[in-house]
Specification:
six-stranded antiparallel β-sheet; 2 domains; mainly beta; Immunoglobulin-like
Length: about 325
């Protein structure tokens, strides 16, 4: 069994635990953030990480060819091997090369991300989350052929219903297209006559993953997924448009605290009381943490000289302050 099959199998197994609904922040590839903040991720930090999958486990020979090498020199290639692709594409993009091999059905390959993540550091079984509060999904994409937007329920359930997952068709579009769908729009294939029935609403209550599946006649099909979020999320109308303002997402209220990256130092101004600063790497781990005191009179700095080059998120929290900003260290 090759490595890709092992990875795919591990990512498609689910546990019976269901995490309660949280806040899903719309993922926009133009913001340069590699992980989808589903609001349901657990402490393993294995949620929201983009991965690819294909039909090789049952005889197909399909794969995705990316426009750049998937790993930067300073990145850990697993599990974040798609990070360089996101940076290049302002999303995830590539060419789905579909070949049947010994398949008797149409070949497929696709992209996806998990909602909650693995059960524990020693148990890679995937946990389900209650995503019903999202109301559905918004997606911005372009593709040479139709994409099946599918709700993954974990390997046990998916295989029991012969992978007839509730899905919505995203029609082929050579230009950027925004689509908003409700959970009620997701249906199992009309040809499915098995006993395991799921509509979109019931699937959303025990959601394991969101999948973008390209299944078509053998050939090569270019695609680009630029944004995905909840039904009322702020998916852009077109690809390549960063989320305003300046990639800073305010979690609550309007903050007077300002931060500016100057070389390898963060400069803070405007806080009337102490704030906590956490610097997180691409897999959500806190790599630096500290406290900045009152800066209404003078600016304060936070030194990042010890960090490797790469993309980081800076979370600032305190009294009436709670926001996140993306930074890029050269």
């Amino acid at each position: 069994m090759n490595k890709k099959i092992i990875l795919t199998t591990a990512l498609l197994a689910a546990s019976s635990t269901v995490f309660a609904a949280g806040t899903f922040e719309t993922w926009n590839g133009a913001d340069g953030v590699p992980v989808v903040e589903t609001g349901l991720g657990n402490e393993t930090n294995t949620y929201g990480i983009w991965y690819d999958y294909n039909d090789t486990f049952n005889g197909g020979e399909s794969k995705i060819i990316y426009p750049v090498e998937k790993c930067h020199a300073y990145d850990i290639c697993e599990p974040h091997y798609i990070d360089a692709v996101i940076e290049h594409c302002d999303g995830v993009c590539g060419t789905a090369t579909l070949y049947k091999g010994s398949l008797t059905t149409e070949p497929f390959s696709g992209m996806g991300f998990n909602i909650v993540g693995e059960a524990s550091p020693t148990d890679n079984t995937l946990v389900a989350g209650d995503a019903s509060a999202w109301g559905g999904l918004c997606v911005t994409y372009a593709s040479d052929t139709d994409i099946s937007l599918e709700l993954g329920l974990g390997e046990t359930i998916d295989s029991t219903m012969n992978y007839a997952n509730p899905a919505v068709n995203l029609p082929a579009s050579k230009t950027d297209k925004k689509v908003v769908v409700s959970w009620s729009d997701f249906k199992q294939p009309s040809s499915f006559n098995g006993d395991v029935k799921f509509d979109g609403e019931s699937a959303a209550k025990q959601l394991v993953g969101v999948h973008f599946k390209i299944q078509a006649e053998p050939g090569e099909y270019e695609f680009r997924i630029c944004a995905v979020g909840p039904k009322d999320g702020t998916c852009p109308e077109k690809c390549g448009i960063p989320s305003p303002p300046d990639a800073i997402k305010i979690v609550r209220g309007t903050s007077a605290v300002k931060i500016n990256l100057n070389g390898r130092s963060l400069e803070f101004t405007g806080n009337k009381s102490a704030v906590t600063v956490e610097v997180m790497n691409s897999i959500g781990q806190v790599v630096m943490k500290g406290v900045i005191n009152n800066t209404t009179s003078n600016a304060a700095t936070f030194n990042l000289a010890t960090l490797n080059a790469g993309i980081y998120m800076v979370r600032v929290s305190g009294k009436n302050v709670n926001f996140v900003k993306k930074i890029v260290l050269r």
